[in-house]
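Entry 14. Two folds queued back to back today. First construct below, sequence then structure tokens.
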Amino acid sequence: MLARETNRRLGTPHPIADDTIGLLHAAAEREGARLHFWTRRDDITRAATILAASDRARYLTPGLHAEMIAELRWPGDPLPDTGIDIRSLEFEPGDLAVVDILRRADVMANLARWNAGSALGEGTRRQVSASSAMAVISVTGGS
């Protein structure tokens, strides 16, 4: 987990080979898990809509917003080896200024009060919509 790396660049959806999907299912099963896999565009679009709405809620809910912002690490942060390095989020140069605004609790409180902020989940919608598939791994129990 500590050595993981994530590519957050937008993709171009391409079909995933059935044998690849089979290998992923088998790998999950070997670990006692189940893999749920969606490749149909309408399923991915539905998932993108749900995840975008949940991101908006996360931005506009004070406790969730505080937790999300606390996970981010900025250049010069005293704890650079924990959390998510802001530079790894694949933002365009001008988007970093937007993130400075998005991390402000007072701005999020105003958006919530005005029932605004519909664009807060658009990045998630765009990224999920550019995916070839959606996968969820589930396990039984709490360990």
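Second construct, same run, same settings:
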Amino acid sequence: MERDWAGELERWLQDRFAALCDAIGQPVPLSGLRINPSLGIEESKYFLLGMETGLFLPDEFGYVQSELLPPPSRENMRQKMCQIFWYDHPPPPRLFRECVCQLSTASSLIIQRGWLTSHILLEPDCKDDRDMSYGIDILVKSPAGQLLVAVEVKRSAVELQKLITDLSACCKRGAHAKDDCGFPQNHPKYEFCAFYKPAYFWAVAPDSDVCFRMKYDGGSIEPEQLTSLPPRSRLEAS
């Protein structure tokens, strides 16, 4: 019998939410945890499989540790972690919806698409010589260290479509600064591509995705839209 992936993950999140509220002394809302947008089937599947295979491990407070996250550095001696729940101050904790999809996407790259953990970097520290952080969610590198795929995760299909529209507009315009851009929210993704030149840009939301093959010619970028991210064998052969 096929597992009810979305139902199973929702129960897990509701249980963790209730336990977290109890641990930090916050009452659990009568409505329980608000999950918006609703969990996708494939998203839920690879989130759960990622936990079951040990790709990432959430603690009782919703902090996630994983070898997919950047290791400690000289500047920060602590292992980087990501959060499933935000609870810096009242009211009760809330779900960091995008984090669920980020972890699921990283898990699917390994379990479904055949990449190794050494090829994947979740929440990388991407800075150039201008000390500008681009906020890319996941990087996929070849065994030789070549940047193959930049992955950006959005919490909903609406945000995904806006990212695609904004990135396409920035690429069409060419080199320009963020303070001179009509799409400042997603402009850093364009700048990331212009600076690091990933071969592919993969935009993901719960149970939906769009992939671009990025073509660079001097200072211009021409994104060619594909139906989805090509298989690992094709990416490594290109």
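Quick look at the second one. The two ends are 40 Å apart (CA to CA). The chain has a mean pLDDT of 90.
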